[in-house]
Amino acid sequence: MQSLLDSPKGQQACGDYVELGKAILKYEKDLFGEWRKAAAMTATECLNRSILAVEKHEGRASSTYAVNFAPELIELMKEAQNFDLIGGFELPGAVLNLALQMDKYKDYAEQLRVMLQGYEEAIGGLTMVQCKVLHTQIADLHKCLRPGLTPLNWNSLGIVDFVESATRGIAAFKNIREQVEKSEERVQAVVESIEQSILVRPFDWTKTDLSPSPSTSTLAEDSVDSSSDYQRVMDVQEFYDFFETHRLSEVEKLVDQYEAIGPFLIKIEETTAGTKSGAAESMREYYAYWERKFFNAITTALVRGLSTFQVLLTSTAAASNQRPPLIKIRSEFNPPEVVVGSLHGVFKLITKLLQNVLHSSAAFVRWMDGTCLLVPTQSTELDEEKALAFSFYKDVSQNPALIEMTMTIQNSVQQVFQTINKFMR
After folding, report:
1. Is it the case that residue 340 has pLDDT exceeding 70?
2. What is 354-409 written as a DSSP string?
3. What residues pair up with 234 in beta bridges, in sequence order?
4. In sequence order, which residues have a C-beta less than 8 Å from that of residue 141 and are 6 or more positions away?
5. Domain Dynein heavy chain tail, which positions (predicted)?
6. Which residue from 173, 160, 205 is spatially nearest to 321, judged by alpha carbons?
């Protein structure tokens, strides 16, 4: 073996091996030098970054925040650990400092993550109208988080104080939002109560007693009782009272609920705007939003009511033959003629029933522009004792669907009267 190394070729091989080793050492030294320089710059640059970053998302009313901890620092730490295991490499001071404080940085990042999770819970799910009414509080919340964007970086000493301050700001915003939403729930409950109200009471066909009454006087003494096992066929006035009494009671209850929402809206104004006037300029759009909701709810209630009458008073010929009559109309036979009671009076009362459903909206007084305050009743010039209320009726009554439904029902009733007249002839 020694003779082989002492040979010319052996000497040449040893020389080449030494040169290769020197080349490898030089490459290793140069490569580490480049890494050392880049690592120091990376560590310094990443640690000088702000601790928070803003992320904007389409479709969201507000920006979101993220912990701005560079993943390059984690990679840098892994590389530094590998160099330390190999040995013989002098790590730059910035990297050594990073290694010594990495646990602290990770703890900062975790605290920031928890804080931002609380922020997302506090701000998430806000509707556009809520963002508008809470715009001052949202601005204050962003102000609490602004130091995380500048001037704080990962070398700052005030990160813990910032997290504590931001957490308090988030809790304060969350408390205000909960107060607003609690009041909104009360107002929304009234909207839904109006929307789902039954202005036209149901009519149970299965409980109609068609047995003849003993006498006219007995009929006059009978009462219309929806809770009894049977309802006798009603005359037109009883038919009118059957529905109108229920409608008046229902409207009175709904109006009481509607007029009781003012304090809840004013509470929202006090919480967000700091005033209790019910007319804060900053609340104008918010009050208009709720007024539109009540307008839509009232319109829906009227459509539901007229739909019930439409089913009740308009039907196919086949269906009409299968169900009992609605109204009793008297006629007398005076040879050679049959005298029918006033059909005009019947039509007039049925039309009045339909109009009363529409006039239910007149019981709901509108708010003054930009406020949640009811418009005061106004006296007329001709009759000072007669007060006029500015209600939803004028706008609701112009709804094309309500107009069409009313005309359809009236036409159906007229067709029935034509059939009666033809039959009596």
Report:
1. no
2. HHHHHHGGGGSBPBPTTSSSBPPPEE-SS-TTSEE--BSHHHHTT-HHHHHHHHHH
3. 327
4. 119, 122, 123, 169, 170, 173
5. 3-162
6. 205
pLDDT for position 210: 43
Q: In terms of C-beta density within 10 A (0-12 exposed, 13-18 middle, 19 or more buried), how is residue 215 classed?
A: exposed
Higher pLDDT, 128 or 329: 128
CA 51 to chain centre: 34
How many residues appear in the chain?
425
Q: Can you say whether residue 156 is alpha, beta or left, with left for phi > 0 and alpha for psi between -120 and 50 degrees?
A: beta
Provide the terminal-to-terminal Cα distance of the chain, rounded to the nearest Å: 140
Determine whether 59 is exposed, middle or buried from the number of CB atoms within 10 Å of its CB (0-12, 13-18, 19+): exposed
Q: Which two tokens stand for residue 268?
A: 């929202």
Asked if 111 and 160 count as a contact pair (C-beta separation under 8 A), the reply is yes
In this structure, are residues 236 and 329 in contact, taking their beta carbons and an 8 Å threshold? yes
Rounded to whole angstroms, the Cα distance separating 183 from 261 reads 9
The secondary structure of 77-121 as a DSSP string is HHHHHHHHHH------HHHHHHHHHHHHHHHHHHHHHHHHHHHHH
Q: Which amino acid is at 220?
A: A
Question: Mapping DSSP to helix (H, G, I), strand (E, B) and coil, where does residue 337 land?
Answer: strand
> Global pTM?
0.78
Q: Which residues contact 261 (CB under 8 A, 6 or more apart)?
A: 186, 187, 190, 372
Q: How far apart are CA 200 and CA 308, in angstroms?
A: 7
Q: Contact at 8 Å (CB) between 145 and 65?
A: yes
- H or E element at residue 235: strand 234-235
Q: Taking a C-beta distance cutoff of 8 angstroms, is the pair 115, 94 a contact? A: no
